[in-house]
Amino acid sequence: MIRPSLNRRLVLRLVTGIALVWFLASAWMAWRMLHEVDEIFDQTLVRTAASVLAVMPASPGQDAPSRLPNNTLIDSDPDAQRPAITLRTAAGDLLLQNRLIPLLTFSSRDEHFHTYVHAERRWRVFQRWDTRHQYWIQVAAPLDERDELMLKMIAPAVLALLALLVLVPPTVFIGLRGGLKPLRHLTSRLTADGSARIPVLTEHHVPIELAPFTEAIDQLVTRLQESLERERRFTADAAHELRHPLAALRLELDLAAGSDGVEDRALHLQRSQAALDRMQRLVTQLLTLARVENLTEFDDAHTVSLAAVVEEALRAVSERAAQRAIQLSLDTSGDTRVHASAGMLGILVHNLLDNALRHTPEHGQIAVRVDADTESVILEVDDNGPGFATADVDRLVERFHRSVASIGEGSGLGLSLVQAIARLHHGRLEFGRATLGGARVRLFLPRTHAATHANGAS
């Protein structure tokens, strides 16, 4: 399959446009030349008539000297480029006539031009009275002389324009080839380097017309590199973190298969189930985190009550809290509506509660509060666990970071996932010390306009 050529396409379009402009310019030039030649031709007839009338006596009966011949008929050379003249008096007496054309009809009209055909030749005729209306003159000239003059004037110009039209395509081709050189340079930069490193295309010598294109390519490559880096990190994290539960699962299954007693086999199967649950939770969090990190916004975002989402999440973890005698409490106030994805917001709240449960000892407390101010809706989760170590605060949202004070087994992905979801909702996290003595996590989400207007109306 022959690929289309940008250079050829540009040349064809430019040449087509130039040819159209050439045709229009040639037509306009020919029209202007014809108009100018007509004016020159007509002015010659006018000046000839004025010259003849200037030497005539004041009246036909005066004996003033006249340079006109005595005879009333002049034999003119047919090849001579001089006009044919007919001169009459006001009474209609013929004073001058030319053999090239027959005697023209006498007219009493004011001066005017008209075209006359005789012997297959077209004549341009001008006629007028003198200022005293004593003489009436007609001056005629063949139009083929005008056409010959027109051809002599137009031919060199048309030939020059034709030569220009012939030279335009190669000139345009060479110019465009040189003008497209930066594109070939960009291509060579992308293909010359065999390393995995992709060069930055936008540099100071890139033409201003190509700068938006190269900047878009650089941004696209950056996004692709970030996406590939996330995929590589996801694969490495999954391989690293799944290795331990898989090994534990296999060990427990081997021990269960080799156990003779029913109680030992049941114990190993129970531990296998725990390892499988941990692996399932880890895979779910990894997939959710990879999905969130590849998003720029949520398609299912709408107005959601954060308090309702928190209530549902508390119901979901209430059984786990009851098993360890952990007391859960919820306090809500204000309008807690936000523009968010209900599903992702539920995952965020569930991970915050799960993180609090893992760090809270038995017979502990977890206090959840949802409040709103003029700009934000605030979710606050407090517990009475060991809290955050000062050295851990900056690393809390890192992947697979586990605090040494955590209770139970965790994947270290909960707060990373919370941070990613909060960022997509234009929110932020704060970590600190709770009034209960443990950790405090605060989530700030922007309020919806609808919620703001509703508060203002109330």
Question: Explain this structure to me?
Answer:
51% of the residues lie in helices and 18% in strands. By secondary structure, it is α+β, with helices and mostly antiparallel strands. It has 3 domains: 6-56 and 69-165, 2-Layer Sandwich (Beta-Lactamase); 211-291, Helix Hairpins (Orthogonal Bundle); 299-457, Histidine kinase-like ATPase, C-terminal domain (Heat Shock Protein 90, 2-Layer Sandwich). A hairpin with a 4-residue loop joins β2 (84-89) and β3 (94-98). It is rod-shaped, with a radius of gyration of 51 Å. The two termini are 69 Å apart.
Question: What's the helix and strand layout?
Answer:
Blueprint: H1 6-54, E1 73-74, E2 84-89, E3 94-98, E4 112-118, E5 121-129, E6 135-142, H2 143-179, H3 181-192, H4 211-258, H5 262-293, E7 302-305, H6 306-323, E8 327-332, E9 337-340, H7 342-359, E10 365-372, E11 376-383, H8 414-424, E12 428-433, E13 439-446, H9 449-457
Parallel strand pairs: 1-3, 8-10
Antiparallel strand pairs: 2-3, 2-6, 4-5, 5-6, 7-9, 10-11, 11-13, 12-13
Helix pairs in contact: 1-2, 4-5, 5-8, 6-7, 7-8
Give structural attributes.
single chain, 458 residues, alpha+beta, Beta-Lactamase, Heat Shock Protein 90, 3 domains, five-stranded mixed β-sheet, 9 helices
Q: CATH superfamily name of the largest domain?
A: Histidine kinase-like ATPase, C-terminal domain
Helical amount: 40-55%
Low-confidence stretches: 64-78, 404-408, 450-458
User: Helical segment tally?
Assistant: 9
CATH architecture classification name of the largest domain: 2-Layer Sandwich
The radius of gyration computed from the alpha-carbon positions, rounded to a whole number of angstroms, is 51 Å
Question: What is the C-level CATH assignment of the largest domain?
Answer: Alpha Beta
What structural class do the secondary elements suggest? Answer: alpha+beta
- Average pLDDT, all residues: 76
CATH fold descriptor of the largest domain? Heat Shock Protein 90
Beta-strand percentage range: 15-25%
Q: How many structural domains does the protein architecture include?
A: 3
